[in-house]
Amino acid sequence: MTQDAIRIEGLKKTYAGGKQALKGIDLTVPAGSIFGLLGPNGAGKSTMINILAGLVTKSAGHVQIWGWDQDRNPRQSRAAIGVMPQELNLDPFFTPRGALEVQAGLYGVPKSQRRSDEILEMVGLSDKAEAYARTLSGGMRRRLLLAKALVHAPQVLVLDEPTAGVDIELRQMLWSNVRKLNRDNGMTIILTTHYLEEAEEMCDEIAIINHGQLVARDSTANLLGQLDAKTMVIHPETPADRLPHGKGLIAETREDGTIAISYRARETGAEAVLEAVRAAGIRIRDVRTEQADLQDVFLSLTRST
Ligand code: ADP
Ligand code: MG
């Protein structure tokens, strides 16, 4: 399927009180992908997700979910998406099984098609199926929120900071489930996280938002491609009169007398850089390398706006 799972155009949100949380977002999420939505605290990630979920009303713009316009076809667009919210908003008087049954009822899933036991098994809550939600640990409540998002077998699953502050076991359970749902059911997954390594590992594509605006949107591979840039900093024995040169190398003298040579680590090995240094007649007193990481890219993209 080549359709977009989500299509957002000109999305704006101003909260009562005047806070402009989204300032006109255009974004499409391809069907079948695992898509990461990144941004610092307060960037507008949850606002966007809650608009997708129908929990927050937008101020302007258009939202299509699985081809259904949210305003013209609210029932269909809602049925196509399941959201695991950031807040642990559970009714304390329901058991996990009860909560799933109520959720299934809300979405009009016929009794014969309900899969509560299977879903509880999947998230590791089978033995807590009859426990009151108020007796569940924080981790178990998160598992239950994921289970609730899945009862109507949505095409698109959205997870808002699912692993913030959770233990390693739960994190692994979440990610293996997410991968499985994506691989076996072709479910499109959208997740927000502020763990950049996690986004790097999980996501095919990444969008970065800051102050309610989209600042980057690319495949993870391309974003990481930006990180491929490395710099070798040479402290020469004596001031250099020639700079090293070579294919893919950019050399410059810094104010402190060191020579900074930028190169792409994937194309050029350190040995080739050192050869160019020696070929320029430079004797090396000391050497170090500088490398950007996703944190740097993220900061450079989210600092100035
Ligand atoms: P994120 O999820 O990226 O941390 P949010 O979408 O939660 O960001 O918040 C974006 C901005 O909107 C923040 O400045 C936040 O304080 C504000 N905000 C969020 N929810 C509300 C609300 N219900 N009323 C007023 N302002 C809100
Ligand atoms: Mg949030």
UniProtKB/TrEMBL annotation:
Pfam families according to UniProt: ABC_tran
Transmembrane regions: none
Keywords from the named record: ATP-binding, Nucleotide-binding, Transport
Location of the ABC transporter domain: 6-236
Keyword Metal-binding attributed: no
GO MF annotation terms: ATP binding; ATP hydrolysis activity
Entry protein name: ABC transporter ATP-binding protein
